[in-house]
Design goal:
Strand content: under 5%
Oligomer: single chain
Number of helices: 10
Shape: globular
Largest sheet: none
Structural class: mainly alpha
Number of domains: 1
Helix content: over 70%
Number of strands: 0
């Protein structure tokens, strides 16, 4: 029987991770994955391997993204045509990645996650002029070919690691598609919501989702994601970008330490 201590710990991990995920458009994986890997053994309540964590994460990301994107859409921070273009291609490749992950070792998945985290952190530290806070969604344009290429690549890798790639979708949308920071945050959650559906299907069909542990995280994540999303509109875009960069950088460092010492 699963220890109650582990279930309670996972509940609070869901609360903490989803709050910042909703606020920064992270989907949840970049925070949830390291927390689930390192906090339970630190507290002595259990140990989860990367495959278990990936299975939990893909379900939690869907639930918390749904909760967060509803708030962002209400605040007019979701660019629906961008979500459609990137979401559809991400769905297909996320499913393929999730199926391929069945034969991929936990060490390889961890290394992939670490590489993606480092890249996302580096580009976010580059200075960028922020757009006016009063953003007109109808006037935002983007390169659809670039959008499809980005979402296809990230969808495949994200499906493998159980992390639809929100933490790297956002930086690439900001710097390569020139999407305003707050709209990138809101739209990323929409893309992650769509792409995680196929990822969930792939993980469930291959028996990679521990349902009781997942339910514990989801119960904490859903209300926290809505609360965090409500703060996005109130915080300056430059502050959000810097906060996102710091969180990803710290996570990347910890993941690389683990990869190099395995």
């Amino acid at each position: 029987m699963t220890e109650y201590g582990l279930l309670i710990t996972l509940f609070f991990i869901g609360v903490t991770g989803a709050f910042f995920s909703g606020m920064l458009g992270l989907g949840g994986a970049i925070i949830l994955v390291p927390m689930m890997l390192y906090i339970p053994p630190l507290l002595g309540v259990g140990i989860l391997n990367m495959k278990q964590v990936a299975g939990i994460t893909i379900v939690v990301v869907f639930a918390s993204s749904l909760a967060g994107v509803l708030v962002h859409n209400k605040n007019r921070l979701v660019l629906k045509n961008l979500v459609l273009v990137m979401g559809v291609s991400a769905v297909v490749f996320s499913f393929i990645g999730a199926i391929c992950s069945k034969t991929t070792s936990s060490g390889v998945l961890l290394a992939i996650f670490a590489v993606m985290s480092a890249f996302a952190a580096i580009i976010l530290f580059f200075p960028k002029k922020e757009m006016d806070e009063n953003i007109d969604l109808e006037k935002i344009e983007f390169n659809k070919i670039k959008a499809v290429i980005i979402s296809s690549a990230l969808g495949f890798i994200g499906g493998m690691v159980g992390a639809p790639g929100a933490y790297i979708f956002t930086p690439l949308m900001i710097y390569f598609l020139r999407i305003p920071v707050k709209v990138a945050i809101g739209s990323t959650l929409g893309i992650v919501l769509v792409s995680s559906v196929s990822g969930i299907a792939g993980k469930v069909l291959t028996g990679q989702v521990p349902f009781l542990l997942t339910a514990s995280v989801v119960l904490g994540a859903v209300p926290a994601a809505r609360l965090g999303a409500g703060f996005t509109k109130k915080i300056p875009a430059q502050t959000l970008r810097k906060a996102l960069a710091v969180i990803i950088a710290l996570t990347s460092i910890r993941m690389w330490i683990d990869v190099l010492t395995r």
